[in-house]
């Protein structure tokens, strides 16, 4: 197939970016979206131009590294799919595809389609853990966890930290990500002890990092490659409110 | 080269506890004076960095991704083994030990493997405490499954995401330490060289992948947990960035590289679709529990299927060759990885392969769906079928799935002793990066176990011992002003500039592809003397071509993924040759290493325990061929036997 | 500081107050279909509540609107900052109601201002109603007669009160098609705002989960529609002639306005 590509090019963090147009021929329908960009880059190298930088690693939808907005949709048009799992058969011959980086103040563009998502790590550092020193654990079956709870925690834990939720949100809010992390840990009995601290600290870190506030638009859920549900945001809200009240009343 | 494995005295089951008791301790107040560098943030790296920091050491951790959570450990789907015996099916440390030794085709070190089996239980406890959401039964207890043909159910799993969940566990502990200021995390940093001072590893040189800055980092010791080298094949189940650079450059600095030819080919991957393909996707082996593997009996039929003129479903029963069931009646479709992979290659070599490229065999669920109903199959494998459908656009409920083997794990790595210290003092190696515990072949679900065992339960002790031996007066004494840093930094910079200056005509990827093809053809599932010799020669040519005809655009001081790739490919080229040399040296077939000259009349692998029961360790020589050293393997507790899966 | 979270909770709580108010308000307004006396009596009752209570309620309502809008504005400003550059192409991923909260909110605000000027402060010069009006309460006792003159409530049992012929005020107000249209539009947008807002409120307070979400979305839409139908029925009934002024005003009569300097304090004197 033949494609017209409109790609965001930006030399580094401080420079002004702009869209550039490229055309690409002989794209296989079976190629993945990133393989399509690989072949574009091979052509650019041949033409002595600087190839398009984009983040990617596992290419199987689990590392959360790949991150680009395709025709306005983070990770492209397919539901529950990362860019690396998106195949060209979902595009039409001759189509113009617009490709741009995640857009959010908390995710500055480093180059072309590459953004800096370390803000997510800072949220995690604030409280995205259960304090369990190596070697201090009790037997794994000591605390039974009902299957339903384990499954719910797993649903939330499936988040790959890609940031598509932020990119899709008109407020660039990180509530789906933070909610997923908080729900995962707060749901488990092991995570209960630090539940309140965690909820407060992670929200604080999220706000400090420059993400917007959630106004329940729901675009995040729609683009999430791991189908993380808006439930996690409600769960985060609930735990955050109860923790705040307890803190204010000094319980 | 000193290859003393430093195995502690005493009976197997007491070695580790005795050894721990005999180790030197560092006074808690003194620990923060020591600085440890951990390169890699996968299971092994994150767990080691977090545990060392918990103990009080000052840690710097490095990874090339934008977050430590993205290390390739994240991709493991299947599960992690532990000898918990929760299922009461007779599992024990002894049995896990024995299975691992046997699985590795008797090419691993007894004491290490025993320790691995011993700490496996603690790993699960640790992970559960961190909040890893393992699968559970309705009663709330942990669920297990049997994996990769094991006779006991000892595999713990978290849906199809075991690797991600375990890594998130280790990453969360790491995060806690980063938050506390005990670990300094350097993401998007690639280690490009090791710095050695007075014979000890004392630092590394990195390139900041965003700004291009090349910097030195000094420490009291260095830990490499940089993963495997499967990408030497170009197409593999590894992530795009997986590399041999860190370990290969350490090799060039004097660390022994052990068993590079031991690579594992996984039988159930999605076949290659065409020229642009950049990556192979693994599908869980559990599919082999219900799927039946077959190809047409005749080439004609296979050809028609390949051309799309024949629907595989319409191939009559008598025209199908269920070759695994035919050749290995007792294990059938569940035959071990190396055996099923090799069998697939054989039938494809005979021209009976399916898929448009001729490189694929069917994994057919027709009978299972008839027997159990589509609903049952959907429940069991729904997400895998979906993944297959997403990649290939085909519906496995209707048309048989196609699979082909792909490189998946590399058992070889830097040589380490019982303390996981390489032949360079102060350089420790953990996880897939060391040659470790899997011998010539790895059992399913045991790499995750080994990575975490190394990181949580071995390295924190043995590193403490090393630092204790250095003495407090030496703590933090390494200074960046040591000329070794400036010198190494300069070499690194020169090499990068040299790559940029070639200004030839070929892209880094094209070289990688070509190298991968050579390795796959000659050092893949079946290896021969003549083939390997040819490969070594071809790689020489490729290397020359690379250094004269490479084209790179972009700058050194900017994000430049092609420059990164070029550096890695340059190392893969040299390393690929080392791999071929190792395969050529090993005149036997064992585990993942199959030499066509060494097989039984039935075409089975033929080991040569008399002459090859050793670890092949290579030493780098500047401007000369690498030199082989041997660490002889002694088996005191297990009887060497021939694997039989008939 | 947990600024965005605080803001969201305030929005949800004030939203909740407004949600409850509109339902009550609508039910009260529907009394118009029970005849002029019914609604006038209702208005009279409301207005004869102790002043503290009445003004207290008004204050809460006013505060709710102000805080709700204030928070909406702050959040919008901050959120615009968090997203300096929008995606170049818009990919619609959520409901229309969710995407138009700000738009529907802003129009609602202008509506509320207009509405209060219209019916509470009564400065919109389209009203016509008759005076003096005499009406009876349920007991039909001649003692409870109120007098309204020139739009200014004067006496009830000899005491000054602030009620008058609400029925005629509404009907005559809605006789103006422009006014009615604006009411219809606004109540339509209110429906839209509520269809998302009510479900959203539960989400913000952390009281929603996936099993309830579908149900809540339906309840919210249902609630919004009820509110819309309830409110809209009045202008529609007026325009279609179903509701007629109780004492049709003769054309020659002068239009009366409430004096704009009218205050509650005056009444209390
Ligand atoms: C698809 C797939 C499925 C698998 N499934 C299973 C399974 O079910 N069960 C099982 O037991 N095993 C499985 N394995 C194997 C197992 O996942 C790996 O062997 C193991 O996770 C390796 O962990 P590691 O910590 O050694 O390395 P990795 O997780 O690969 O981490 C390497 C780290 O080193 C860093 N790094 C690398 N090079 C450099 C450099 N030059 N400079 C700086 N940093 C660098 C990387 O950034 C990364 O952080 C699977 C492997 C694959 C590929
Ligand atoms: C007057 C001007 C108004 C403006 C500018 C306004 C604006 C907004 C905005 C921007 C939101 C955020 C969207 C969200 O969080 O989901 C919102 C939410 C909401 N609004 Fe309004 N609104 C107004 C009036 C009203 C009125 C009159 C009501 C009720 C009758 C109301 C009820 C709600 C409710 C219930 C929510 C959901 C709160 C939450 O999400 O927690 N709003 N409003
Ligand atoms: C057809 C629809 C409506 C009618 C007939 C109506 C009627 C009235 C009347 C008669 C009053 C004056 C009450 C008094 O001062 O005695 C009033 C006040 C008010 N109305 Fe409405 N209304 C309608 C719709 C709405 C809507 C949709 C809203 C909100 C979004 C609303 C909000 C208010 C408010 C806030 C006041 C001021 C309350 C006060 O003065 O204490 N109204 N309305
Ligand atoms: S919640 Fe979904 S979209 Fe957001 S980071 Fe996690 S996986 Fe990505
Ligand atoms: S799209 Fe944004 S507004 Fe909230 S529900 Fe999702 S974070
Ligand atoms: S490259 Fe890993 S998720 Fe896409």
Structure, described:
- The complex is a heterotrimer of chains A (251), B (646) and C (269).
- Chain A is built from eight helices and seven strands; from the N terminus they run ββαβββββααααααα.
- In chain A, the strands form two sheets. Chain A has a five-stranded mixed β-sheet with strand order 2-1-5-3-4. In chain A, strands 6-7 form a two-stranded antiparallel sheet.
- Chain A has helices at residues 33-46, 118-127, 147-157, 164-168, 175-187, 195-208, 219-223, 231-248; strands at 3-9, 18-24, 69-70, 73-74, 96-100, 109-111, 114-115.
- Chain A has two domains: 3-111, Beta-grasp domain (Ubiquitin-like (UB roll), Roll); 118-249, Orthogonal Bundle (Fumarate Reductase Iron-sulfur Protein, Chain B, domain 2), CATH 1.10.1060.10.
- In chain A, a hairpin with an 8-residue loop joins strand 1 (3-9) and strand 2 (18-24).
- Among the domains of chain B are: 266-407, Flavocytochrome C3, Chain A, domain 1; 502-611, Up-down Bundle (Methane Monooxygenase Hydroxylase, Chain G, domain 1), CATH 1.20.58.
- Chain B contains 18 helices and 19 strands.
- In chain B, the strands form five sheets. Chain B has a five-stranded parallel β-sheet. Chain B has a five-stranded antiparallel β-sheet with strand order 11-15-14-12-13.
- Chain B is globular.
- Helices cover 62% and strands 4% of the residues of chain C.
- In chain C, helix 1 crosses helix 3 (51-82).
- Chain C starts with a helix and ends with a helix.
- The model of chain C is unreliable at 126-163 and 248-269 (pLDDT under 50).
- The complex binds flavin-adenine dinucleotide, protoporphyrin IX containing FE (HEM) (2 copies), iron/sulfur cluster, FE3-S4 cluster and FE2/S2 (inorganic) cluster.
- Residues 168-169, 171, 173, 175-176, 214-220, 230, 233 of chain A line the site of FE3-S4 cluster.
Structure characteristics:
heterotrimer, A: about 250 residues, alpha+beta, Ubiquitin-like (UB roll), Fumarate Reductase Iron-sulfur Protein, Chain B, domain 2, 2 domains, five-stranded mixed β-sheet, 8 helices, about 10% strand, elongated, B: about 650 residues, Flavocytochrome C3, Chain A, domain 1, Methane Monooxygenase Hydroxylase, Chain G, domain 1, five-stranded parallel β-sheet, five-stranded antiparallel β-sheet, 19 strands, binds flavin-adenine dinucleotide, binds protoporphyrin IX containing FE, binds iron/sulfur cluster, binds FE3-S4 cluster
């Amino acid at each position: 197939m033949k494609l017209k590509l409109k790609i965001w090019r930006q030399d580094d963090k401080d420079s002004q970016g702009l869209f550039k147009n490229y055309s690409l021929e002989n794209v296989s329908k079976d190629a993945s979206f990133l393989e399509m960009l690989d072949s574009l880059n091979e052509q650019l190298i041949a033409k002595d131009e600087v190839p398009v930088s984009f983040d990617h690693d596992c290419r199987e939808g689990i590392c959360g590294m790949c991150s680009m907005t395709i025709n306005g949709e983070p990770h492209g048009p397919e539901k529950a799919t990362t860019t690396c799992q998106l195949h060209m058969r979902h595009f039409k011959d001759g189509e113009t595809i617009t490709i741009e980086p995640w857009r959010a103040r908390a995710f500055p563009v480093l180059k072309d389609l590459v953004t800096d998502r370390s803000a997510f790590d800072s949220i995690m550092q604030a409280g995205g853990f259960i304090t369990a020193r190596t070697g201090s654990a009790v037997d794994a079956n000591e605390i039974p966890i009902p299957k339903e709870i384990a499954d719910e925690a797993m649903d939330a834990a499936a988040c790959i930290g890609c940031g598509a939720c932020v990119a899709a949100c008109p407020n660039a809010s990180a509530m789906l990500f933070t909610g997923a992390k908080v729900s995962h840990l707060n749901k488990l009995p092991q995570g209960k002890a630090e539940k309140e601290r965690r909820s407060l600290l992670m929200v604080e870190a999220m706000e400090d990092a420059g993400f917007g506030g959630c106004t329940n638009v729901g675009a995040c859920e729609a683009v999430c490659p791991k189908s993380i549900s808006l439930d996690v945001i409600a769960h985060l809200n609930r735990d955050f409110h109860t923790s705040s009240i307890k803190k204010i009343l000094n319980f | 080269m000193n290859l003393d494995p430093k195995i502690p005295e005493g009976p197997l089951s007491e070695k580790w506890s005795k050894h721990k008791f005999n180790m030197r301790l560092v006074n808690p107040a003194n620990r923060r004076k020591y600085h440890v560098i951990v390169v890699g943030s996968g299971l092994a790296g994150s767990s080691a960095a977090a545990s060392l920091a918990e103990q009080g050491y000052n840690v710097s951790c490095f990874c090339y991704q934008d977050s430590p959570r993205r290390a390739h450990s994240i991709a493991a789907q299947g599960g992690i083994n532990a000898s918990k015996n929760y299922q009461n099916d007779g599992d024990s440390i002894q049995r896990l030990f024995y299975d691992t030794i046997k699985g590795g085709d008797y090419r691993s070190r007894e004491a290490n493997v025993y320790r691995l089996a011993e700490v496996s239980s603690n790993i699960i406890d640790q992970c559960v405490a961190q909040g890893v959401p393992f699968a559970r039964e309705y009663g709330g207890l942990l669920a297990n499954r049997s994996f990769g043909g094991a006779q006991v159910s000892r595999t713990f799993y978290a849906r199809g995401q075991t690797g991600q969940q375990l890594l998130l566990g280790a990453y969360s502990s790491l995060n806690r330490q980063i938050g506390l200021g005990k670990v300094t995390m350097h993401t998007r940093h690639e280690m490009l060289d090791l710095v050695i001072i007075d014979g000890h590893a004392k630092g590394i040189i990195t390139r900041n992948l965003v700004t291009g800055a090349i910097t030195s980092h000094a420490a009291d010791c260095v830990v490499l947990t940089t993963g495997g080298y499967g990408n030497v094949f170009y197409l593999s189940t590894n992530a795009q960035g997986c590399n041999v650079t860190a370990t290969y450059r350490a090799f060039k600095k004097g660390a022994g590289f052990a068993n590079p030819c031991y690579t594992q080919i996984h039988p159930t991957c999605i076949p290659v679709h065409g020229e642009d393909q950049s990556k192979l996707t693994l599908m869980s082996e559990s599919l082999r529990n219900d799927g039946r593997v077959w190809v047409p009996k005749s080439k004609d039929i296979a050809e028609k299927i390949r051309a799309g003129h024949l629907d595989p479903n319409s191939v009559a029963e008598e025209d199908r060759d269920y070759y695994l069931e035919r050749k290995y009646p007792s294990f059938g479709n569940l035959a071990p990885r190396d055996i099923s992979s090799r069998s697939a290659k054989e039938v494809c070599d005979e021209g009976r392969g399916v898929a448009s490229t001729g490189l694929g065999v069917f994994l057919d669920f027709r009978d299972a769906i008839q027997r159990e109903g589509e609903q049952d199959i959907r429940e069991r494998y729904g997400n895998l079928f979906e993944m297959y459908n997403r990649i290939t656009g085909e519906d496995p409920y209707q048309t048989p799935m196609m699979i082909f083997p792909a490189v998946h794990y590399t058992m070889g790595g830097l040589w380490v002793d019982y303390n996981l210290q390489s032949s360079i003092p102060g350089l420790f190696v953990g996880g897939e990066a060391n040659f470790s515990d899997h011998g010539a072949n790895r059992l399913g679900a045991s790499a995750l176990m080994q990575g975490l065992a190394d990181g949580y339960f071995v390295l924190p002790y043995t590193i403490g011992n090393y630092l204790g031996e250095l003495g407090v007066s030496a703590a933090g004494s390494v200074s960046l002003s040591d000329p070794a840093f400036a010198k190494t930094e300069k070499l690194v910079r020169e090499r990068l500039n040299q790559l940029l200056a070639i200004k030839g005509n070929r892209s880094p990827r094209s070289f990688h592809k070509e190298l991968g093809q050579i390795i796959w053809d000659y050092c893949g599932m079946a290896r021969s003397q003549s083939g390997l010799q040819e490969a070594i020669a071809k790689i020489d040519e490729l290397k020359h071509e690379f250094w004269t005809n490479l084209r790179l655009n972009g700058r050194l001081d900017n994000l430049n993924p092609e420059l990164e790739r070029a550096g890695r490919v340059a190392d893969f080229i040299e390393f690929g040759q080392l791999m071929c040399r190792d395969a050529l040296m090993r005149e036997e077939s064992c585990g993942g290493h199959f030499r066509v000259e060494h097989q039984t009349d039935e075409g089975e692998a033929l080991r040569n325990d008399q002459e090859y029961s050793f670890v092949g360790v290579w030493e780098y020589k500047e401007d000369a061929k690498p030199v082989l050293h041997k660490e002889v393997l002694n088996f005191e507790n297990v009887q060497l036997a021939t694997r039989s899966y008939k | 500081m947990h600024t965005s979270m605080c803001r969201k909770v305030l929005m949800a709580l004030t939203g909740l107050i407004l949600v409850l108010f509109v339902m009550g308000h609508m039910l009260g307004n529907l009394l118009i279909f029970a005849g002029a006396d019914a609604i006038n009596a209702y208005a009279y009752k409301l207005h004869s509540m102790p002043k503290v209570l009445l003004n207290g309620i008004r204050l809460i309502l006013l505060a709710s609107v102000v805080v709700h809008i204030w928070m909406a504005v702050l959040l919008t400003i901050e959120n615009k900052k968090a997203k300096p550059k929008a995606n170049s192409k818009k990919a619609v991923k959520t409901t229309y109601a969710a995407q138009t909260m700000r738009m529907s909110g802003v129009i609602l605000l202008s509506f509320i201002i207009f509405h209060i000027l219209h019916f509470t402060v009564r400065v919109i010069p389209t009203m016509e109603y008759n005076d003096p009006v005499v009406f009876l309460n349920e007991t039909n006792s001649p003692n409870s007669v109120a007098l309204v003159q020139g739009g200014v409530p004067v006496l009830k049992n000899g005491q000054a009160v602030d009620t008058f012929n609400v029925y005629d005020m509404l009907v005559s107000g809605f006789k103006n098609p422009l006014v009615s249209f604006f009411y219809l539009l606004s109540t339509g947008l209110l429906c839209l705002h509520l269809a998302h807002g009510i479900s959203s409120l539960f989400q913000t307070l952390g009281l929603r989960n996936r099993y309830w979400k579908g149900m809540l979305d339906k309840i919210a839409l249902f609630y919004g529609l009820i509110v819309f139908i309830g409110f809209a029925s009045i202008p529609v009934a007026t325009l279609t002639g179903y509701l007629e002024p109780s004492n049709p005003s003769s054309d020659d009569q002068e239009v009366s306005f409430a004096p704009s300097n009218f205050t509650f304090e005056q009444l209390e004197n």
